[in-house]
Amino acid sequence: MKKFRTVGLVTAALVLCAAVAFASGGEGGGHDKWLDLLYRFINFGIVAFLIYKFAGKRVADMMTGRTKQIETDLSDLDERKEEAEKRLLEVEASIANLETEKARIIADAKAQGEAMRQAILEKAEVQAAQIKAQAEIAAAQETKLAIDAIREELAEKIIVAAEDLVKKQLKKKDHEDLVNEYLKKVVLN
Predict the structure, then answer these.
(1) Which long-range contacts (CB under 8 A, 24 or more apart) does 2-8 make?
(2) Where are the domains of the chain?
């Protein structure tokens, strides 16, 4: 706020001095050119003194502050430039490492894929062996059941055929003798 006030005062002083100079510079009949030049130097000196008196320190401080600000900005820019160069080197190194990292990831993925393939094949082989063993057991059981069924049927047919044969060949007396003999064996035991 003080800066605006100071600038306003300096501007007003310049306008007033210029007005005095303008008013004194008429065509009034024979002013000496050297005297006119002297008045202009005096006028400039007064204006310069007023500027120096009212705004000199502030203008100097403003210029010094601006110079310091520019120096600070330049040093900050240098630091940022160095940081950017470091970051650029890091990024370039990272890009260079990307190829090796990509190759390593691909190799790891291939190795994992091959390991999974081997595991799947081994599991499939184990399952196939189990299925084959179960099929063999089931076939053996079916064979045994079929043989047992055939034996049972054959035994029944043999019994029927033996009965028929015995009926044809056995006479009533032989039959009674046979029954008595079995009864004796059963009673004795």
Answers:
(1) 2/58, 3/58, 3/62, 6/54, 6/55, 6/58, 7/55
(2) 140-188
